[in-house]
Specification:
Elements lengths: L12 E4 L3 H13 L4 E4 L15 E5 L4 H12 L4 E6 L3 H8 L3 E9 L7 E10 L1
Parallel strand pairs: 1-2, 3-4
Antiparallel strand pairs: 4-6, 5-6
Length: 127
């Protein structure tokens, strides 16, 4: 995403990666491309005070939707939108999440995996 947004003035991309080797790889590759990106070698829970107010929070293959919402709550509850890639069984995750959360949801079909979706979540609050 940082590469795709590189030519858009004022764009800031923050990546949070807890694995040191992966974070170093991201810094090296993106730095070599001249892309304006901030790579935080932290767990997501520790990044709340580091990453300024984002417009979009995204994650792929990190956790269940309920856990993602808990991790992203500090940003989503303040107006950011979540874009979360989920597989074919996403409906069960959405249903379970609605027991604990209120949110607006838009389902976008995945172009990379049949039956999968990108869940766009906004206006997050606890039940």
């Amino acid at each position: 995403m940082a590469i795709l947004l590189a030519e858009r003035p004022g764009t800031r991309v923050d990546l949070v990666e807890s694995n040191k080797k992966k974070a170093a790889f991201l810094k090296t590759v993106l730095g070599g491309l001249g892309v304006q990106v901030f790579v935080w070698n932290e767990r997501i829970e520790a990044a709340v005070g580091l990453v300024p107010k984002p417009e979009i929070v995204t994650a792929r293959a990190l956790a269940s939707l309920g856990d993602l919402l808990k991790l992203a709550e500090p940003w989503l509850a303040k107006g950011a939108r979540g874009l979360f890639h989920k597989g074919r069984d996403y409906r069960a995750e959405v249903k379970e999440s609605l027991n604990h959360w209120r949110f607006d949801l838009v389902e976008h079909p995945s172009v990379t995996e049949s039956g999968a979706v990108i869940l766009e979540i906004s206006r997050l609050s606890r039940r």
